Amino acid sequence: MRTGQPNQPTGGTASELLRISELRVDFATEHGWANVLGGVSLDIHDGEIVGLVGESGSGKTVTGLSILGLVPSPPGRTSGGHIWLHDEDLTEVAEPRLRQIRGNEISMIFQEPMTSLNPAFTVGDQISETFRRHRRASRKQGTQRAVEVLDLVGIPNAATRVHAYPHEFSGGMRQRAMIAMALCCDPRLIIADEPTTALDVTVQSQILDLLRSMRAEIGTGILFITHDLGVVAELCDRVVVMYGGEVVETAPVHDLFQLPRHPYTEGLLSAMPQLGSRTAKLASIPGHTPEPWAMPNGCRFGPRCTYHQESCSESPVALESAGTERQARCARLAELNLRGAS
Amino acid sequence: MLLLIARRLLVTIPLLILVSFLIYSLIALVPGDPAVTLAGQDPTPEQIAAAREELGLTDPFIVQYWHWLVNAVQLDFGASLFNSEPVASAIAARLPATLSLTVLALLIAILLGVAAGTLAGLRPGSWIDRVATFSASVGVAVPYFWVGMILVLLFAIQTPLFPAIGYVPIGDGVLTWASHLILPATALAIAPAAVIARQTRAAVANVMTEDYVRTAEAKGLPRSRVVGKHALKNAALPVVTVFGIEANRLIGGTVVIEQLFAIPGVGQLAFTSVFSRDMPMVQGVLLTTAVLILLINLLVDVSYGYFNPRVRQL
Amino acid sequence: MSDHAIEHPQAPGLRRFLRRFRTNRTALVAAVVLALVTIISLSAPLLAPYSLHEIDVPNRLSGPTPEHWLGTDSLGRDTLSRLMYAGQVSLAAAGLAVAIAIVLGVPLGLLAGYRGGVLDWLLGRGADVLMTFPAVVLAMAIIAATGPGLTNAMIALGVVYSPRLFRVVRSATLSVRQETYVEASISIGTPALSIIARRILPNVLSPLLVQISLMLAAALLAEAALSLLGLGVVPPTPSWGGLLGVGFTEIRTTPLLVWLPGIAIAITTLSFNLIGDGLRDALGRETRKGD
Fold it and tell me: Which residues cross the membrane (chain B) (predicted)?
């Protein structure tokens, strides 16, 4: 079992890269403290690509930001749980150590390539400064490294483009540059927060190819945050599905698509546009993600669930084993027979 | 970048010509006949005619302006109506004092304003922010000349730390030069510092929520670099804009401050020549001021190109 | 208030704007302070303990005493009374300068924004030229040509400030002018004056109010600076700037004569500024909502 071992005090096996256990994050709102992450647990192994899936508001981005300690505070605060990077607890380490880890051991790629690069500095400078910061390298070595990684991510004429400003790059090239920046210190883990959402479909698949080959060549683990199960199917080894600040299901990609064990996952799968089918009808899950200050009692997905019973709302539902290497958080786990993707 | 400067110059020069025309036209506002003034007491009609000829007043107005402009371009603004001192040399002699005062005041304003504004903008709503915001409101409202007087009272009379009046050229020692200028420069700097602080606060608070600041944090850069490099360069544009406006106002303030602190600068020259209605001198001072301000505006425009790379290509 | 609104249905923006302004506590306090300063100054003949020129020679340069709450000046004149009378002059002078700026800037701004074209371009360059100079310096130059005195100084200031109002009015006019309903109104032949009065003026009013409030503060400061130099209000008429100039000569013996007029100016400009900021905030939310 890879996920949901909340009381394990230290990091696990040799190949385990990152383990989040029972992470709780609250946000101050006008309604008081709202629980945004209600005990999230997941882990990533070396060279593994894990998809973190959910609608907006499910807490997937906050989970990603938490790993690097980037949840804005105020209003956010971590109120419990651990994030183990090997045997270091990132929720405990001091800020200077966290800044050594960021961009070096763990780096992050954001959703908006248009606004995530600083318009006032050249692309090369923004890559090279990361390298210089973590490798104590000279300006020249920094630029050299920038050219290398830009070349690696497939920017043509990297040696000249290194001196270009972000506005001289297209959206796809900017995202490549962001990936280059994330790669420049050979991190063990890359957190990619919806890196392809803002891009058009052709560029999107190029970026996915790029991430795949990065994993193959460098062996970087990737936490791929997305709301798009299609992308997950293409790219990931394992999937973690989040809803309302909780992990509701986790499984190897193939198993999840074939046989979802949580009604929410089933809903997501049926909402996927079917490739090749002409009469593709887009089902969507009725209702909205609950606001963090108004979480339903018991199962958080209850109000939107087709299989909802009164008993579902009585007490919080635990994440339970649901077969080999998989878990689900459903009170009716044993009785339900859910439909996978066809 | 050179193209940007060239294009800005193309805008500035016609403006300067219009400005010079306005300056020359002021003569037309003078009641009475300048020739009568020049001709001395109880002039004969012949003396007046001679004076008129000498002043070139027989030509049409636009021709008179042309002559004046041609001379002005060669730095010949005529001579004082009162002591016949060439206007250009009078201004040149007084320029160092005014430039010293202006540059020092602008430096104080930038350092104070950017520091206070950044501290406030990084923590909107904190006590630092509230103190800075309140101080800025007061700083904008207090009359700079009054601040000058109070500074003299506090730091020259009640606690004699600095001289109350006078000016010493920088060649006579940087310390004495600075000690004479510190009070007047601070008086001039308060209001611009307050305006710059407000603008910096707003810009920094705004920029800190930008995605690229989060990117910089995610790269593991130290806080000082995240703020000092990534945030401030982007926050600079609106700040530079108000800097240009405030520099303009500050230069106006030198007239009063030089008078209060007995600094022999262009501002004092402006005052004495306005008081004695010495129009050639007034015109020379105005033109000097306009050139100085257009130069600052040019620098501000060109700095946009540095702070925002997109401007360079337009 | 509400009866009033029914008669002017075309200006709901302005009313909402003023209502927003009323919720701004700082600006409201500033408005009350300003009203107090104005009332006290205007009722100087009734309230002032002494007349303007009454001298009390034995008590020259006295500090605060029961007879002279804020002391006396070098001629033994009562400072409190003179501050109150000076307030009249300073406020009136600032008001005059701004009134002149309005008379010049607003119609020209409407014209330039409404007509556009060469006229707009010419007026715009004229404004550029005037705004090249620091206000005080240009006002001084005009005074050099026309001679010192309160009226000349304030006309000069009004001229110098007019481009600021011109620009605000012009750009507000231009943006309303390009609204579809105004274009339509013009195309069916509604007279220009009627369009300006009904459609454009109400929309120009809010940004104009902001600018006027801030300009009153600037004019008060500029008047004080000019009077301090002896180019504005000339003695024996007192103005706050003039009192400051005279007080400065006594700074070593009676610093109170410097403190008081300065504080009077600062409180008044601060009030104008805070009111202006409050108006701007009210306006800011308004425009953002419209976007």
Answer: 9-30, 99-122, 134-157, 177-197, 285-307
- Segments of chain B with pLDDT less than 50: none
DSSP class of residue A318 equals P
pLDDT of residue B313: 60
CB-side neighbour CA atoms (13 Å) of B304: 19
Q: Say whether C136 and B22 touch across the interface (CB within 8 A).
A: no
3-state helix, strand, coil in chain B (%, to 5): 80, 0, 20
User: Can you tell me the distance from the alpha carbon of B53 to that of B47, in angstroms, rounded to the nearest whole number?
Assistant: 10
Q: What is the pLDDT of residues A6-15, one digit of tens each?
A: 444 444 455 7
Phi and psi torsions of A72, nearest 5°: -60, 130
The CATH architecture one would assign to domain B88-276 is Orthogonal Bundle (1.10)
Interface of B with A in 219-258 (CB under 8 A): 219-222, 225, 229-230, 233-234
Which chain B residues are Cβ-neighbours of C249 within 8 angstroms?
none
Q: Which two tokens stand for residue B73?
A: 């371009």
Best probe of the C interface among B24, B146, B153, B195, by most C CBs < 10 A, is B146
Fold of C12-49+71-286: MetI-like fold (1.10.3720)
Chain A residues inside the 8 Å CB shell of B217: 70, 102
pLDDT in tens, B121-170: 999 889 999 999 999 999 999 999 999 999 999 999 999 999 988 899 98
Rounded-to-integer distance, Cα A154 and Cα A177, Å = 9
Cβ–Cβ < 8 Å for C67, C55: no
The segment(s) of chain B belonging to CATH 1.10.3720.10 are 88-276
| CA B146/CA B151 separation, integer angstroms | 8
A26 within some domain: no
- Would you kindly state where each structural domain of chain C is located, as residue ranges? 12-49+71-286
Q: What percent of chain C has pLDDT over 70?
A: 91
